[in-house]
């Protein structure tokens, strides 16, 4: 693992952008694995700015997102499809037909998504990390062998997310579709970004702990090309 520690969120986003820019300029038809959440928003803003200022093109790029809620309409304001369009896709020239966000609830939906990725092979997978070490919707205890699958959201996760659904638990999705850990590990390169003190324990377990399903992100120690970009707070518990 190549661990880079910088001062704050903006510097993390800048460093992550440098890695991304190198990939999309050296390979204009790169396949990008993308994540939602607060961690990569700064990276996406840098990509949009660079596209506008310098013309870096995503016209030949394909994207595959990590995860999505089950049973939310695509255009629901809380869907990850909407998140990606609002925070990245609308600001760059990626073609809609090249955008892939997993969707569906069946085994066949999962297999089709896995197959689509296998056919192209992901050049770089952007990841954030949960405070409990999750990656994608792969919570602690998930086998490292899982490919794209449907997960039942824990009560805790649903309660944490209720604020995005008018605080109405009936509106909070109960399931999600996610790339599995084995899917994530197939990417040629992993670009993990993490900031804030609440990630410090998970970051320590990911980098210094023994790889274990107790911290799903620790599997990344078994990958040959991982760049982890941290701010000082997220790195504060490292030795
Ligand atoms: C996002 C995802 C999640 C997040 C993680 C960190 O698609 O799959 O694993 O990366 O929960 O979220 P933030 O960045 O909001 O702290």
UniProtKB/TrEMBL annotation:
GO MF entry, a single one: identical protein binding
GO BP annotations listed: carbohydrate metabolic process; glucosamine catabolic process; N-acetylglucosamine catabolic process; N-acetylneuraminate catabolic process
Superkingdom assignment: Bacteria
Domain Glucosamine/galactosamine-6-phosphate isomerase: 10-225
Active site per database record: 67, 132, 134, 139
Catalytic activity, EC: 3.5.99.6
Reactions the enzyme catalyzes: alpha-D-glucosamine 6-phosphate + H2O = beta-D-fructose 6-phosphate + NH4(+)
Record Pfam families: Glucosamine_iso (PF01182)
Keyword list, A-Z: Carbohydrate metabolism, Hydrolase
Pathways per UniProt: Amino-sugar metabolism; N-acetylneuraminate degradation; D-fructose 6-phosphate from N-acetylneuraminate: step 5/5
Transmembrane spans: none
Role played: Catalyzes the reversible isomerization-deamination of glucosamine 6-phosphate (GlcN6P) to form fructose 6-phosphate (Fru6P) and ammonium ion.
Membership in a protein family: Belongs to the glucosamine/galactosamine-6-phosphate isomerase family. NagB subfamily.
Full protein name: Glucosamine-6-phosphate deaminase
High-level lineage: Bacteria, Bacillati, Bacillota, Erysipelotrichia, Erysipelotrichales
């Amino acid at each position: 693992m190549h661990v880079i520690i910088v001062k704050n969120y903006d510097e993390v986003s800048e460093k992550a952008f440098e890695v991304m820019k190198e990939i999309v300029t050296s390979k204009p038809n790169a396949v990008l694995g993308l994540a939602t959440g607060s961690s990569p928003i700064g990276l996406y803003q840098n990509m949009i700015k660079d596209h506008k200022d310098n013309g870096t093109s995503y016209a030949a790029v394909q994207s595959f997102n990590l995860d999505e809620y089950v049973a939310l309409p695509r255009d629901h304001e809380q869907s990850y499809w909407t998140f990606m369009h609002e925070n990245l896709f609308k600001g760059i020239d990626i073609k809609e037909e090249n955008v892939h966000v997993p969707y569906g609830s069946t085994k066949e939906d999962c297999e089709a998504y896995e197959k689509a990725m296998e056919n192209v092979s992901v050049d770089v997978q952007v990841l954030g990390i949960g405070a409990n070490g999750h990656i994608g919707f792969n919570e602690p205890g998930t086998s490292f062998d899982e490919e794209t699958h449907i997960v039942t959201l824990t009560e805790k996760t649903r309660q944490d997310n209720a604020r995005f659904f008018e605080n109405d638990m009936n509106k909070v999705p109960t399931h999600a579709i996610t790339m599995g850990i084995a899917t994530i590990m197939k990417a040629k390169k992993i670009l993990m970004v993490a900031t804030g003190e609440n990630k410090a324990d998970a970051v320590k377990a990911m980098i210094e702990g023994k790889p274990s399903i107790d911290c799903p992100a620790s599997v990344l120690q078994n990958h040959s090309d991982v760049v982890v970009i941290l701010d000082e707070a997220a790195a504060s518990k490292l030795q």
